[in-house]
Design brief:
This protein has 222 residues and is of the alpha/beta class. It has 6 helices and 10 strands, in the order ββαβαβββαβββαβαα. The strands form 2 sheets. It has a 6-stranded mixed β-sheet with strand order 1-2-3-6-7-10, sandwiched between helices. Strands 5-4-9-8 form a 4-stranded antiparallel β-sheet. Strand 6, helix 3 and strand 7 (144-147) form a beta-alpha-beta unit. Helix 2 runs parallel beside helix 3 (129-141). It is globular, with a radius of gyration of 19 Å. The N and C termini lie far apart (45 Å).
Length: 222
Amino acid sequence: KTKDITIERAIIKIPITKLEALKDNKIAHLSFYSFTSTAPFEFQQAAAKILGTTSYKGLILDLRNNPGGFLEVAVDIAGWFLNTGDLVAIEDFGKDNGQGKITEFQASGLGALKNYPLVVLVNQGTASAAEILAGALRDNHGIKLIGEKTFGKGSVQELVNLKGDSSLKVTVAKWLTPKKHSISESGLEPDYKVTLTEDDISKNKDPQLDKAIEILEKILNQ
């Protein structure tokens, strides 16, 4: 349905991370908004706060509405949660283009956050590098995804320059999760599907986050 919205022109500074403490400081809720070039540094700062807070027993990684960004940043961030050498993503060029080449990207971090019980929040706005990270965490360590089906941006583009100062962006490969699930064909289905309605938003409710807390608490109590 249509609605009237009053807007004001302004410079909008989008944060990269936001860290909140939940459930008497036992759960760290880390929202991660974009895989920009500065994201590894900002994620490192957030991770340091988590590691430096002894009361944190579990972690919710919130990738909702994260449109992605640089692949190398996704691999870098994955290194905080995976073992060195764990597969993060596969770049599949396929046989149709005559190459049939496959490139594997592996984690190389210290896995400083890998021992924290973890769940991941996703939705329709979770795309590209965010899907790569979520898929890598689930495929390698069985991390549960909570929320809604992700966007399905798993294609690799290459810019081809043409005559007349024009160019064409051509899809040359697709991203696969470590278990060779094609992100571009179907996105990532959550393990626990929870919708967030307009009514929830108007009432300041977040059933997806509530479910994430519920699942994480069950893991912590095992």
